[in-house]
Design goal:
The protein has 16 helices and 18 strands. Strands 11, 12, 13, 14, 15, 16, 17 and 18 form an eight-stranded mixed beta sheet that branches. By secondary structure, the chain is of the alpha+beta class. The two termini are 81 Å apart.
Length: 602
């Protein structure tokens, strides 16, 4: 009886679990649909609504920056117009020619500088000689020297006009001075006729202080910050804006946080060169409105979804879930007692009734299948054990031929395996005077000697974390830095080469003398891959391999010859002796070195 119960319960358990948790799954499906709808709506709406909000916000910020630019242009234009009467005043026209000081006492008084908020006044003759020049200190209400940096610009052709200048010429704009930016206006003195001839130049200047900039922008309600472009202590956001602004995009918009967004632009000086970096701050009301609209839309969707989900769940409970629960109870009872002759009942002609018929048919088939399963189980276990043993043997054989990572790739998929390695170190070793020895030794003794010698080399390769590639006759090839890359590949190869020279001395020939190796080392890029369909092998190709082979063949017994590429990686940790230029087949003269040993730590 217990075996029959397990036979019934195992196949029916997934179905029973599904039936018993159907209410929860239905609720989960409705909740998932609601959440999916909300997220989808949020994703689509946020991309459209927030993108539009941010675009409108950026456009509004650009308009605000343009307003600030217009205010500065208007301020410059107004400043120029303010002094046009002076350039066309006959008294000023006479003053730049005769320097009559009565004009100064009567007109260039402190009240003028205070009321007009000017910091500089210069009257110069047509030859550029100043007739009158002064600065003004509004803090002390007194005269002051000319601002620093302005004197060298007060010459004809720059800020001053000569006799041949057009009578309508105006030179106005921003001038960067050591004491700060100044709004400057220079006009030719042409008298009341306005036609000249030009008798000199009338120049007035006003520093663009923070207070002056605030006065300019306050009517428009702008929050403005201005810095010189050449200021070495620019705030971070101004430095980033300076780097991003260009002639093709003269206005940069950048958020300052969740509540503020800034627009940046450049003001040119009187010479048309970039002089001041202007930042206009805006409140992010448009973006907040977009977020509020989006939250309201999602909230409405969730509320509607909850109502829809509740109604749907109620209908499902009455029409489907109650009947499924009854069917679940009857199937559970049959599985509990293990009575395969029992049947479930569900009146009607709908899908649930047809499902009941299918369950009854399954119960009939289960009894017959139970006997077959017990027989097949024993056969499968025997086959599985045999397959696992065969698989283990094949894995061991494969790992003796190929690196583990390459073997794993071959087992996963049969395709061409080829990789490029930018820098590896290759070692070739050859047993000196082995050919005549091979002619003298019996085959079994020769192969046994090579097997013992190369097995000791294999242990050294494993000890140093290197990859043996192959043996060709009495030659042994090993590489460091692949298939797993490592930064110390050259040092690991060098240590193995030194160890090989010690190990090979343990073996003696038929003359009683220990064997010696010729070893060559080179570093460079290679291509590694598996070739062949049968008896495949993992091999290397590239000029670095050829040079390593030439290092071995052109070396001397008992010594390790190193190329210049490997020398650069070993010079700090190993003792090397320069051999000089050696003729290398296919490469010409190459500088090589003898590897002596590892340096003693200081």
């Amino acid at each position: 009886m217990p075996s029959r119960i397990s036979i019934v319960s195992a196949p029916l358990k997934p179905a029973l679990d599904a039936l018993l948790s159907l209410r929860a799954k239905t609720l989960l499906a409705i909740a998932a649909t609601l959440l999916g709808l909300s997220f989808a709506l949020y994703g689509v709406s946020s991309r459209a609504l927030l993108a539009n909000s941010m675009a409108a916000e950026a456009q509004d910020t650009r308009r605000t920056v343009q307003v600030a630019l217009n205010l500065f242009r208007q301020a410059s234009s107004d400043f120029n117009a303010r002094w046009t009467d002076w350039s066309q005043w006959d008294d000023a026209y006479a003053f730049v020619q005769d320097g009559n000081q009565e004009f100064v006492r009567s007109n260039l008084v402190a009240q003028l500088f205070d009321i007009a908020r000017i910091d500089l006044a210069v009257f110069a003759g047509a030859d550029g000689t100043p007739v009158y020049s002064t600065g003004y200190d509004h803090a002390t209400k007194g005269w002051a020297p000319l601002p620093r940096g302005i004197a060298e610009r007060l010459r004809v052709g720059d800020l001053l006009f000569g006799r041949d200048a057009p009578s309508s010429a105006v030179r106005g704009g921003i001038v960067l001075l050591p004491d700060g930016p100044m709004l400057l206006c220079s006009q030719p003195s042409v008298g009341s006729s306005g036609r000249g001839p030009v008798a000199g130049t009338v120049t007035f200047g006003r520093f663009l202080t923070d207070a002056e900039i605030k006065r300019l922008t306050e009517p428009a309600g702008l929050s403005l910050a201005v810095h010189r472009l050449d200021d070495p202590q620019l705030p971070d956001d101004f430095r980033e804006a300076r780097a991003a602004l260009s002639d093709s995009d003269p206005i940069l918009v950048h958020p300052l946080g969740s509540d503020r967004i800034a627009g940046y632009t450049v003001l040119n000086d009187i010479d048309g060169k970039p002089a001041l970096l202007v930042r206009v701050d805006n409140d992010r009301a448009i973006l907040r409105m977009g977020h509020d609209t989006l939250r309201y839309l999602v909230l409405v969707t969730v509320v509607v979804g909850l109502v829809f989900g509740g109604v749907t769940l109620l209908l499902l409970e009455k029409l489907v879930l109650y009947r499924l629960a009854r069917l679940s109870r009857e199937v559970t009872e049959i599985g509990g007692v293990g009575d395969l002759s029992a049947r479930v009942a569900m009146p009607g002609t709908d899908e649930l009734s047809r499902l009941t018929g299918s369950i009854n048919g399954m119960l009939s088939a289960l009894e017959a299948n139970a006997r077959r399963q017990s027989q097949q189980k024993a056969a499968l276990e025997q086959a599985k054990a045999a397959a696992e043993r065969a698989h283990e043997r094949s894995d061991r054989l494969l790992l003796n031929i190929l690196p583990r990572t390459i073997a794993d790739q071959l087992k996963e998929h049969e395709q061409l395996i080829a990789e490029h390695f930018e820098e590896v170190t290759v070692l070739f070793a050859d047993i000196a005077d082995f050919t005549p020895l091979a002619a003298r030794l019996p085959p079994a003794e020769l192969v046994g000697l090579l097997n013992r010698m190369f097995s000791s080399f294999d242990q050294l390769a494993e000890q140093h974390g290197l990859e043996k590639i192959k043996t060709i006759g009495d030659a042994y090839m090993v590489v460091g830095g692949l298939p797993a890359q490592r930064p110390d590949h050259a040092r690991a190869i060098a240590r193995m080469a030194i160890a090989m020279t010690h190990t090979v001395r343990q073996f003696v020939g038929d003359d009683g003398e220990p064997f010696q190796l010729r070893i060559g080392i080179n570093t460079g890029p290679v291509i590694a891959g598996v070739i062949g369909k049968k008896k495949f092998s993992y091999d290397l190709w590239g000029d670095a391999v050829n040079v390593a082979s030439r290092m071995e063949s052109s070396g001397e017994p008992g010594r390790i010859q190193v190329s210049e590429a490997s020398h650069s990686l070993l010079a700090r940790d190993f003792l090397l002796e320069e051999r000089g230029l050696v003729a290398i087949k296919g490469k010409g003269a190459m500088k090589t070195y003898w590897l002596i040993g590892e340096s003693t730590p200081q």
